[in-house]
Design goal:
There is one protein chain. This protein has two domains: 2-78 and 156-237, P-loop containing nucleotide triphosphate hydrolases (Rossmann fold, 3-Layer(aba) Sandwich), CATH 3.40.50.300; 91-155. Helix 4 crosses helix 5 (139-151). The protein is built from nine helices and ten strands. A six-stranded mixed beta sheet has the order 6-7-8-3-9-10, with helices on both faces. It is globular. A hairpin with a 2-residue loop joins strand 1 and strand 2. 37% of the residues lie in helices and 25% in strands. By secondary structure, the protein is of the alpha/beta class. It catalyses: a polar amino acid(out) + ATP + H2O = a polar amino acid(in) + ADP + phosphate + H(+). It is an enzyme of class 7 (translocase). It is a peripheral membrane protein.
């Protein structure tokens, strides 16, 4: 579904991604772990061109997103994105947040968009908050709304950029449970996370990034119990000891 070849990205003199190659198969859950500044979020944002690569290619469903004359906005309709900062529109209620893109981009009728939105709000346990203002919600509720909003576009893949990093520890679980349910339903997912237990128990594959490159990737059990890269071992020993 996604193929990344030779991806490079710099910000000024800082090279953030260095010749990154990665494939994601339909239905696969891939988690990306690594220290802060290793390039995880930049890689994720390059998948839907929120960041434009300096070199390399990003293929999605057979289309090269980095090619000239590609309608990136049309392809993005099939790529759901959930940010660590929620990115909800505070001047709209929850339901309007969820129906805006389906109405304007998918050309759904208001009635159809609301039916779809209420279904997804129900699936994340928030149907009772459809007419609430985002400012009245907890962080966990806001992130569940953000997930429901992304699902309203009926994406083929979901990208999660550290979706629990802005949440209080006691409400992280409610967001992770929604993500586990998506994985059980077969949603293709790429997740940048510091939640090691989620990476270990939900992922089909774990990717460890270090200094702008993929240092190691593989099945979760092998990565967590017998990593081959010294950098992976160092990261996990430090992280899991916390």
């Amino acid at each position: 579904m996604v193929r990344i070849e030779g991806l490079r990205k710099s910000f000024g003199d800082l090279e953030v991604l260095r010749d990154v190659n990665l494939d994601v198969a339909p239905g696969e859950v891939v988690t990306i772990i690594g220290a802060s500044g290793s390039g995880k979020s930049t890689l994720l944002r390059c998948i839907n061109l929120l960041e434009t690569p300096d070199a390399g290619h990003v293929w999605f469903q057979g289309s090269d997103l980095t090619a000239d004359h590609v309608d990136v906005n049309a392809l993005r309709e099939d790529i759901g994105m959930v940010f660590q900062g929620f990115n909800l529109f505070n001047n709209m209620d929850v339901l309007a947040n969820c129906t805006l893109a389906p109405i304007t981009r998918k050309k759904m009728s208001k009635a159809e968009a609301e039916e779809v939105a209420l279904g997804h709000l129900c699936s994340v346990g928030l149907e009772a908050f459809a007419h609430a203002a985002p400012s009245t919600l907890s962080g966990g509720q806001k992130q569940r709304v953000a997930i429901a909003r992304a699902l309203c576009m009926r994406p083929k893949i979901m990208l999660f950029d550290e979706p629990t990093s802005a949440l209080d520890p006691q409400i992280v679980g409610e967001v992770l449970e929604v993500m586990r349910a998506l994985a059980r339903d077969g949603m293709t997912m790429v997740v940048v996370t510091h939640e090691m237990e989620f990476a270990r128990t939900v992922s089909d594959r774990v990717v460890f990034m270090d200094r702008g490159v993929i240092a190691e990737q593989g099945a979760p059990e092998r990565i967590f119990t017998a990593p081959e890269s010294p950098r992976t071992r160092e990261f996990l020993s430090r992280y899991l000891a916390d």
